[in-house]
Amino acid sequence: MEYNRNEKALKEFERTYIEIIRRVRKDGSAKLSDRSKRVIIKQMESVVNRLAYNKKNVIEKVGEIMGGKALKLDWLEKYDEEIAKGREEGREEGREEGILVSIRNLMKNVGMTAQEAMNALGISASEQKRFMAML
Description:
The chain contains six helices and no strands. The protein has helices spanning 7-26, 34-51, 56-65, 74-110, 114-120, 125-134.
């Protein structure tokens, strides 16, 4: 359906979109957590972005429905930022754990001291102190 040129179709799209959001927000059952509701709304946003590509009327209508935020929800952006931050922290912890495993393996299998192992791995002097405390 061509929402960009057909005002009747655009109105029907608007009614359907508003009804879906209303149902998601009002669902008081234990079936949907707040996080699940946010994910559903975010996925709806993603679908609309794909459907509305180069369709100015649809983009404007969804922006009106979402409170003039033109397909952007601040709390979802914050949520995405926090998820990305958590992933980066997890990767950093993984890198540290990998370095510790390497140090321990060199000590155990090659007979190096912790200092020798860290030197062999190219760990800077400032980082060596931190890793030494973790061993």
